[in-house]
Design a protein that fits this description.
With about 475 residues, the chain is an alpha/beta fold. It contains 19 helices and ten strands.
């Protein structure tokens, strides 16, 4: 009897093993060919190890020597809440995935990185599955990193996320893995938007966190499912946060092979109709229609169209990767322009305050009048008249009421006194960086000349020592 049972068990194991082999063969037959991903993104090409290191180091030096001193002197970070760290300057391009729940954001990342059916694939499902902000980045070995560790590491660009509190850091996860694509780009997967959920239920300021990632993203994929195109309050809020970033936005109509061609055309039109009130730009964002997951397209669908759309998206991604250094230089220059305008405005507020003050004046009342009605004292108009500042770059007047509510005007010096014999003037240095140094670095990259740092630029050996005994 025992022998019969043993034989039956053995036969069952053989049948089970055979069934598993057949399942693997069927799965392999329906998996989509991924060779075009490596070809389009040129993952097989070897980049020099120190490809852009020298240029980034030069950019870092320009920022620290010419822009950051004015940023700190006039507390720009308290106006914009955006402090640039070394980790952000040296970081790779960031691709951000946004959209409603269960639209295929995590599946798309799994497909691009080839993680399907590996122990490290992002979890996917028909229900809301991603509750964390997941950062997928390059590392020497595969490992996961807790949010509190990522925020504590100053060499990364995520340390400013500490300001959103411990509840958020518990919802932040990093995944490191050795991958050719991740050597050039970092992916960020976000929790899906659930319209019937309030921000308070998440336990952290969801929209504020999204804004932080939006401000730093080089490419933003907003993913939709053709069977779920409802636009609610949370999605409207998200698109309001994307204002000004339209050039980085790409709309993904995912799972397109789940519909017949005629139905897909109707859904495409409905998508534009739903998003038109939310995107007020002359040229709408590019829309990619395909099915971004590792399995083959459904039969009797426009597979050739979907394949071309997929390659077009990959070329778009590749363009961002190849332009990463130019984008970084342009970003730092734009930041420098904003810091310069802020410094000029604070200088004008200080000068107006000194001109209005008399021996019998009440300092608080005098400055309150200036802050409440800056146009009466031509503060903003004088900046436009005397400097090469565009009126479109001027910040909101109301922001300075809050700014000076925290920072007394008496705590700031005028620009004319922000000079030293050894270090020069803050205004001269930032203007030189904006008009000469950063455009020069950008042109050297565009012309194919990879800039190199001299030993003194790298170590600072040629800088004159600061005069510690000179009064500033």
């Amino acid at each position: 009897m025992k022998g019969i049972v043993s034989v039956c068990c053995f036969v069952s194991l053989l049948l089970l093993a055979s069934a598993e082999e057949e399942d693997k063969e069927v799965l392999t037959s329906i998996l989509r060919d991924r060779s075009h991903i490596e070809e389009t993104l040129r993952l097989a090409s070897e980049e020099p190890s120190g490809d852009y290191t020298a240029a980034l180091q030069k950019l870092r030096k320009i920022y620290h020597s010419s822009i950051k001193p004015m940023e700190q002197a006039y507390k720009y970070n308290e106006l914009r809440q955006h402090e640039i760290s070394d980790g952000e300057i040296m970081s790779k391009p960031m691709v951000l995935f946004l959209g409603p729940w269960s639209v295929g954001k995590s599946s798309m990342i799994n497909y691009l990185l080839g993680l399907q059916d590996t122990p490290y694939q992002l979890y996917t499902g028909a229900e809301p599955t991603t509750s964390e902000f997941t950062v997928i980045m390059h590392g020497e070995k595969i490992r996961s990193i807790e949010g509190i560790v990522m925020a504590a590491d100053s060499s990364r660009s995520f340390s400013p996320l500490e300001k959103f509190g411990q509840n958020f850091l518990e919802k932040l996860v990093g995944i490191e893995m050795p991958h050719k694509l991740l050597e050039r780009v970092t992916f960020v997967d976000t929790p899906g938007i659930i319209e019937n959920r309030k921000q308070q239920e998440r336990g952290y300021p969801f929209n504020d966190v999204c804004q932080w990632f939006i401000d730093r993203a080089d490419l933003i994929f907003v993913v939709f499912d053709p069977t779920k195109l409802d636009v609610g309050m949370e999605l409207e809020m998200l698109f309001r946060q994307l204002k000004g970033r339209e050039s980085q936005i790409r709309i993904i109509l995912n799972k397109a092979d789940s519909l017949a061609t005629q139905d897909l055309m109707r859904v495409y039109g409905a998508l534009f109709w739903s998003l038109a009130p939310l995107i007020n730009v002359t040229e709408p964002p590019r829309v990619y229609v395909s099915s971004f997951w590792p399995y083959d397209y459904a039969p009797d669908t426009s597979r050739e169209l979907f394949k071309r759309e997929e390659i077009s998206l990959l070329e778009d991604l590749n363009q961002v990767i190849e332009n990463r250094l130019e984008n970084k230089i342009a970003f730092i220059r734009q930041h420098g322009i904003r810091v310069r305008i802020h410094g000029l405005l604070v200088d004008r507020y200080v000068q107006t305050f000194k001109d209005k003050m008399s021996f019998f004046s009440d300092p608080e009342l005098v400055f309150q009048e200036i802050v409440d009605d800056p146009d009466k004292f031509y503060i903003f108009k004088s900046i436009l008249a005397k400097t090469n500042v565009s009126k479109f770059d001027l910040p909101n007047r109301d922001a300075y009421r809050d700014f000076f509510g925290i920072n007394p005007v008496s705590s700031f010096k005028q620009l004319s006194s922000q000079c030293s014999y050894m270090g020069g003037c803050l205004l001269d240095k930032i203007e030189r960086a904006i008009t000469n140094e950063l455009p020069g670095l950008l042109s050297s990259i565009s012309s194919g000349k990879n800039p190199t740092l001299s030993s003194c630029e790298a170590t600072g050996c040629g800088e004159k020592p600061k005069n510690r005994y000179r009064r500033h």
